[in-house]
Every structure is written in structure tokens, then in C-alpha cells.
């Protein structure tokens, strides 16, 4: 099932662009194309999409390849989104620990 060529082009360009105005991690990907639409595009269940976003270390190579194919980007770009998501999660955890620790 299609998600619309315009949305697909916007997402693909955002992933390719990266940086301040692009898509740099999996959370940002889901801000541009929600889990339901991504599920329709890839054939993966919405729950799987959410799990892989919150636990990017679980993404399989076959899932990276399929996402890359469906989003018209290189597998390396999808792998970078996952790696960047892992770094973002780690940074969030460190910030949370800092906020919780007494002075």
C-alpha cells in the first residue's frame, strides 16, 4: 500500500539531508511518517515499528534493507538513523540521571 508519493519524497529527502533540517534518528522519522503509515509501507506491524524505535539495537539487517528500499535511501542511512537513535536514548538516560541526582 502506498503512503503518497509526496510524503515519501519528503521523508527520503529528509533522511538524505540529515543535519538541522533533516531526519537524523528514528524518532524524527516517526515525526514525519507515523507508525501506521510506516507499517503500511513496510508490512511490519505497528507494534514492531514502535519497538524498534524505542529499542533500536533490536533492528535486524533485513529490516534495515526493507526500510531503505521502501524509503528510497541507502541501507547505510537507515543504519545511521538507528545508531543515532541509540545515542539519543543514551543521552536522554544520562540527562535523566543528572536531573535525579542530588546536588
TrEMBL record:
Ranges of residues in domain HTH cro/C1-type: 32-80
Pfam families found in the cross-reference section: HTH_26
InterPro entries recorded: Cro/C1-type_HTH (IPR001387), Lambda_DNA-bd_dom_sf (IPR010982)
Entry protein name: HTH cro/C1-type domain-containing protein
Residue ranges the record marks as coiled coil: none
Domain of life, source organism: Bacteria
GO MF, one annotated term: DNA binding
Organism of origin: Chitinophaga flava
